[in-house]
Specification:
The chain contains 17 helices and no strands.
């Protein structure tokens, strides 16, 4: 067991085990922060460009897609006979040593490129803010990126209390800004064009929209560490408490993010959405230009900074745990040594990538996508039919739904990559 999740564990009073408490709230915030990355600024365009009907249908499906998938992954990690098993231990236990290590390696490489992307994105966002909003000279990139990446990793090394306080400090303003922007745009809403959809076109649009929704709300990277903390806190009640926290997280995501998406989409015409897509700019940047509103333009970098930072922390949690789990089975080094080595290597890699600012990151993200979909949707469903502890979920409608979404997501991603 890696000490990544051990570093974020503390005892809670026994009298609070049956009620909702601050511990639960903090984990909702941390999972919310993990899910809401910089992609939220592109989500309204990506999901809304297909028209009104696909947007409405995907809105209805967003909650079950998000909650059921993450619940399945949480159940999978909690199905281990080992009390302190992390994701690497569980896949090896259920699928054998060879397959387990391969899946664990794929899991790590599905998360790690996202950290590289966020390292570059955070550096670019802060640099742009310094130059454009503060009207100062651009600082040396090697210094700026080093300070930013080191700062985020320092938070991770500070333990659970610092991590949870940071998530609270980031997520509350993020929710407040999203809500404010959603309501601020209401006077600009336009009645959407509602035409009778063409069945073939609607089906294809929905199919290609599945991965967008899946990854816009994904907090899979933090699930293993999250459920292990709940297992130590709540013992035999870990499954029910984990599911309750995941349910609240999904509701929070759907309410605040989709309200923001709808508000942005209803403020733009289909032609404007297409222009924004072609220009590859965030929805707030495009809205600021369309309405000549510097106020919205100022909030764009703020949302991006908060979203990237909170999502980076959640993904680093998953990468750190999976690296520790893999290396502990390959070397005779102590967990503490492996953890320090992993943190150091990831810091160097993220820092170098942030300095180089490569254009290959989109491709890396495309590679991460299918792997995350298989681990989040398909693997836990297969485990339901293989693992005795999970067979109580066989034949459940939710199990089939998660598998169907996983297949659609992987096929749509592969279609986009090959198309």
């Amino acid at each position: 067991m890696s000490n990544a999740s051990e570093a974020i564990s503390h005892d809670i009073p026994s009298d609070s085990r049956g009620r909702w408490n601050q511990h639960d709230t903090q984990w909702v915030l941390s999972l919310f922060g993990t899910a809401v990355g910089a992609g939220i600024l592109f989500l309204p365009i990506n999901i809304g460009i297909g028209g009104f009907w696909p947007l409405l249908i995907m809105t209805v499906l967003a909650f079950p897609m998000t909650y059921l998938a993450h619940r399945g992954l949480a159940r999978f990690v909690l199905s281990s006979k080992q009390a302190d098993a992390d994701f690497t231990d569980v896949v090896e236990e259920h699928f054998g040593a060879g397959a387990g290590r391969l899946i664990s390696l794929l899991y790590f490489f599905s998360i790690f490129p996202i950290l590289l992307i966020y390292g570059v994105g955070l550096t670019n966002t802060v640099d742009s803010f310094i130059v454009n909003q503060l009207v100062l000279e651009s600082p040396p990139r090697v210094v700026l990126s080093g300070i930013l990446v080191a700062g985020m990793i320092a938070i991770m090394m500070g333990g659970e209390k610092l991590l949870m306080r940071t998530f609270s400090a980031l997520v509350y303003p993020l929710v407040a800004v999203l809500l404010f922007l959603s309501l601020y745009l209401v006077p600009n809403w336009q009645i959407p064009v509602i035409n009778t959809p063409d069945a073939v076109s609607l089906t294809q649009t929905l199919w290609l929209s599945v991965p967008i929704v899946v990854f816009s709300f994904s907090h899979a990277a933090a699930i293993s560490s999250f459920v292990n903390v709940q297992r130590r806190h709540y013992k035999e009640r870990a499954v029910s408490k984990s599911e309750k926290i995941l349910q609240c997280t999904s509701i929070m995501l759907i309410v605040f993010v989709l309200l923001f998406v709808f508000s942005c989409v209803l403020s733009l015409s289909p032609e404007q959405m297409t222009q924004a897509k072609q220009a590859n700019v965030s929805v707030l940047s495009y809205l600021a230009n369309v309405y000549d509103n510097p106020y919205i333009a100022m909030l764009g970098p703020l949302v991006a900074f908060i979203a990237i930072t909170s999502s980076f922390l959640g993904h680093f949690l998953g990468a750190r745990e999976s690296f520790n789990g893999l290396m502990s089975k390959q070397t005779s080094l102590t967990i503490a040594t492996i953890d320090k080595l992993g943190v150091a290597l990831m810091f160097i890699a993220i820092w170098v990538c942030a300095v180089l600012n490569p254009s290959i990151l989109d491709m890396m993200g495309a590679i991460s996508g299918p792997i995350i979909a298989m681990i989040l949707f398909i693997m836990p469903t297969i485990a339901v039919y293989k693992v005795p502890a999970l067979q109580q979920y066989k034949g459940k409608l939710g199990t089939y739904f998660v598998l169907a979404v996983g297949v659609l997501s992987v096929s749509a991603l592969l279609f986009n990559m090959l198309g």
